[in-house]
Design goal:
4-stranded parallel sheet, single chain, 3-stranded parallel sheet, Alpha-Beta Plaits, binds iron/sulfur cluster, alpha/beta
């Protein structure tokens, strides 16, 4: 059974019903009911825009708190590449890794390292036969869910490879078992340090019979102060040498993933509104000969996630400096002993079984939806078309659909009542 767990939630006590989030939600998932915002779970893509815009702190993301983690277990930190862009005057990545070890993590497996493997796997995948083009990155879970819910005809074009944070969890666990045969599998726990709520939702959403490689997801905001404190006193040792190169770190910002493929025909876009425009164009076949499309819900990429403490553009600048201190791409599939394992497991059965069926909810009932939309279009003609939001729906068109679906009453449109006298 599919079970999708949203991380974005509302605190009704704090909500004033101001309608700011109602207007900003890119997929019109919010309504105001009884003067409080409510989120339609079937529509929400966990992009975090409503958290960003709510001035009353009524929206938040749930995640695993650092204080709740059991450090008596073999805890492996999985820092997102964007974490390395959060610190001023950071000369070398060692300090972040040592800081995490000093916080009590038993090991650190950089997600940027897994990203370098995903780069190789994507190249292998794209060189295959009968691959639907353009191939669309599946690294941003907001984009994957958006495609699944609103652009289902593009599903076949998503890269069928697990995103780097999940692959990092899998590889980190395998390394721990190899290096510490005394450990029981249940004693090893992986903790992803996330810049965005959508990755929390991804990791918390499981399907029966499937393996989740990330046990806990905490937020960068939650880790930041403790880590900064540890970093101030940390002395990097041999265990804190970074294992990822500049290719992996660049995944934190827009175009990093696409550029690493060395494929000239690619398109990248960030910001949820731009992403939707590109997907609209892709769906209607308006874009020309493109090999690869990288879309990021946040600007300028994951560094702009709502759970990251720094301004995304500042973090990007810091990462650009840091990239000069590491080698280009130390992690290559062909260099590792277990290439056969990767080949068999990831591009075929592993990904198809997990990466695609992992996003739950299934496709909406298109026929029912089309019928309702047709009725709503007719009703919308009779509405004032002011998109004032006073009815609790974001636009007159959305209100018409809510009425057709029985979620609102035509009398809720006060403007129409006034016009009619
Ligand atoms: S922005 Fe949305 S959640 Fe925040 S107070 Fe206004 S209506 Fe409520
Ligand atoms: S997280 Fe994004 S999709 Fe979900 S309700 Fe907020 S703005 Fe809308």
């Amino acid at each position: 059974m599919a079970k999708y767990t949203h991380s974005v939630a509302i605190d009704p006590e704090k909500c004033t019903g101001c309608t700011t989030c109602l207007r900003r939600c890119p997929v019109e998932a919010i309504r105001i009911r009884d003067e409080k915002a409510v989120i339609n779970a079937n529509q929400c893509i966990d992009c975090g825009e409503c958290i960003r815009v709510c001035k009353h702190n009524a929206k938040h993301a749930s995640y695993d708190k650092l204080s709740d983690l059991d450090f008596s277990k073999y805890l492996i930190a999985l820092p997102a590449p964007s974490l390395f862009g959060q610190f001023n005057h950071l000369d070398e990545a060692d300090f972040v890794i040592q800081g995490l070890l000093d916080m009590g993590f038993s090991d650190v497996y950089e997600v940027a390292k897994a990203a370098e493997y995903v780069t190789d796997l994507t190249r292998i995948y794209m060189a295959g036969e009968n691959v639907a083009r353009p191939v669309i990155s599946s690294a941003c879970p907001v984009v994957v869910r958006l495609i699944k819910l609103r652009f289902p005809t593009l599903c076949d074009q998503l890269v069928p490879i697990l995103p780097p944070y999940e692959l990092a969890g899998k590889l980190a666990r395998e390394r721990a078992l190899e290096e510490h045969p005394e450990l029981k599998p249940e004693d090893i726990k992986t903790v992803f340090i996330s810049p965005c709520p959508a990755k929390v939702s991804w990791a918390k959403s499981v399907m029966e019979g499937q393996t989740v490689h990330v046990d806990y997801v905490t937020s960068m905001n939650d880790v930041y102060m403790t880590l900064l404190d540890k970093m101030k006193g940390s002395v990097p040792g041999p265990d804190s040498a970074p294992e990822a190169g500049s290719v992996g770190l660049r995944w934190a910002t827009t175009s990093g993933e696409a550029a690493s493929l060395m494929n000239e025909g690619y398109l990248t876009a960030d910001g949820i509104d731009n992403v939707i425009k590109v997907l609209d164009d892709l769906e209607s076949g308006m874009l020309g000969d493109i090999g690869f499309v990288e879309l990021n819900a946040c600007s300028p990429g994951c560094v702009g996630g709502v759970l990251a403490p720094s301004n995304g553009y500042v973090a990007r600048l810091r990462l650009q400096s840091l990239q000069k201190t590491v080698v280009v791409k130390p992690n290559n599939l062909e260099d590792i002993e277990s290439l056969e394992r990767f080949k068999g497991e990831i591009p075929s059965d592993y990904t198809e079984a997990e990466a695609f069926t992992y996003m739950p909810d299934g496709a909406p009932n298109m026929f029912k939806m089309m019928l309702a939309m047709k009725k709503a279009e007719a009703l919308a003609e009779k509405l004032p078309n002011k998109d004032c939001g006073a009815c609790g729906s974001p636009t007159c068109r959305a209100f018409a659909l809510d009425v057709v679906n029985g979620e609102a009453k035509i009398e809720d449109c006060k403007v129409r009542s006034e016009l009619q006298g």
